[in-house]
Each structure stands twice: as C-alpha cells, then as structure tokens.
C-alpha cells in the first residue's frame, strides 16, 4: 500500500509531539522537552506555526522548523529565517520527505518576508534547495599568559532578570540579531550556547561597577582541539573588545585555555585578539553575527549554509 502524508504547519496541539520527536533524535536519553528547553526560540510553543511537518494522519513523520529574526546590519534591518531540527522518522526515510518539507518551509519563510535563510548541517539536500556555504570564523587561543590590561576588571554571570545589563552593549553592535526582553530571558534561561551549555558573563571595571563595559558568552565544558587540547569557546561578545580580551585572559588563568570565536567581518575583535595565536579555522560563522548563538540548532564543527531570497 502506498504511504500517504500531508505537509503543513504543525497545529498547536501537535507542538509537544514535534518537540518529543526532536528530543528523541537530538537529545536521546533526556526528557521529552529537552530540545524546547535548549532552543526556546526555535522550538518554543510560541513558534509552533513555523514548525513544518509531514503528518501521516496518526503522527509526525518529518519536520523542519524555522525562527524568524530581524538582523540589523548597520545599513538596514532585514528579516532572516534560521532553520533547524530537521528530521525524518526512521521508517519513513528514503522517500524525499525532508526535501519536500524543507522546500515548503523555505517558501513559507519567503512569503513571511524573509530576505535570507540559514541552516546547519552537511546534508546535500540543503544545497539542492539553493543553500550555499557561509564563511568560516577564526578561533583565537587565549591562554592567560599575556600581561594585565590597563583596567582592573571583574566578571560575573548574568541571570535571567539581569538581561538589561547586556542589552545596551548588544544593541550597539552591528551586524547583530535584534533581541527583545522576551528573547533575552528565554535565551539566558536555556543556558545553551551554540550546542552545549554555557553562560553569559558581564565585564565591569572594579572602580566603577555600576554597568558593564563588555560581555561574552562562554561554554561551560571544554572542547578538544587537535592543535591545543581542551579549550572552552567564547562565542558572542559585545562592548569594549579590549575589555573582552582581558576578561577572557583572566578566565583562562582559572579555567584553562579559551578559544575566542571571531567572525570574518569583526575587525574590532580581530584587532583586540591580534597577539593571540589563531587556531585552525574549523569553526563557522553566519556572516551576520559572531555565532548562531542559541538561535539556530547547530552541532559542533558542522558547516552553516545560507539561502538568499532576494
């Protein structure tokens, strides 16, 4: 008997089913809502109408989700679609379902006004849909061996209620993802950086600690690099680049080697990190921000692809 399915946005009552399937595949052994907790903007209940599914009448058999987000380039504000959680149930693979669902999802994002799309992974179907490889970022090794900077700095992690401390620093950067209060709170609560757990740290001058001068997002667990051994990645940053560099050196002294991920276009960070050795350029960049920080489902060291709608 020929199998039948329909492709459509998930219904609100199907949100938990979509999250359950995604969690079973991408977070095996964890609770059924693990993926929604890790990626609340993409897989939160409020984004259910942007979760596209293939449904066989009884259950979800394939899925592609996307999150619409504004990008401020400094020359204009554009709407982007960040795709993730692409899967097909094992029994349904080999029938082109992922291709069909991705095609419908990318078209839906275009109709909603998206000027570009981003997706992570190595599957050929992305390139068949018109996605192209995005530029790679540079990783700088921060080992804590440099001299102290001109300021006595102190750092502390930012809690969900303190999102406003770093909002102004984030808003001063271009290009950047636009984030409102709800987005900041959801991201800080999730404590997911790129793929693993992490925290956002604010950097203060000890002589005037009322507001931070910089911030960065630092992974909790180190990654193993062939050239250097274990190191933690510092992903998104904002504010004074020299302060960020000095604070990362202080982190490296107590926590071990840090890798500062710097986008190709981020001249300020490249200048601040100029005295640090570069790591192999295996990390990836949106071409929009220093990293797809907690906005797209991205696995470690897997390329990102972009799609131009205009």
Write the SSE topology:
Layout: E1 6-9, H1 15-26, H2 34-38, H3 40-43, E2 51-55, E3 60-72, E4 77-88, H4 97-111, E5 116-120, H5 124-128, E6 132-133, E7 138-142, E8 153-157, H6 164-171, E9 176-177, H7 181-190, E10 192-193, E11 196-205, E12 214-219, E13 223-225, E14 229-239, H8 241-255, E15 258-262, H9 267-272, E16 304-308
Overall description:
It contains 9 helices and 16 strands. With 310 residues, the protein is of the alpha+beta class. The strands form 2 sheets. Strands 1, 2, 3, 4, 5, 6, 9 and 16 form an 8-stranded mixed β-sheet that branches. Strands 7, 8, 10, 11, 12, 13, 14 and 15 form an 8-stranded mixed β-sheet that branches. The chain is elongated. The relative contact order is 0.17.
The best one-word shape is elongated
> What's the name of the CATH homologous superfamily of the largest domain?
Gcn5-related N-acetyltransferase (GNAT)
Radius of gyration: 20 Å
Biggest sheet record: 8 strands, mixed
Q: What structural class do the secondary elements suggest?
A: alpha+beta
> What proportion of the residues form beta strands (DSSP E)?
25-35%
Instruction: Calculate the mean pLDDT score and round it.
Output: 83
What is the third-level CATH name, the topology of the largest domain? Answer: Aminopeptidase
State the total count of DSSP E strands. Answer: 16
Q: Give me the strand/helix succession.
A: EHHHEEEHEHEEEHEHEEEEEHEHE
The percent of residues in helical segments reads: 25-40%
> Would you state the CATH class of the largest domain?
Alpha Beta
Low-confidence stretches: 282-300
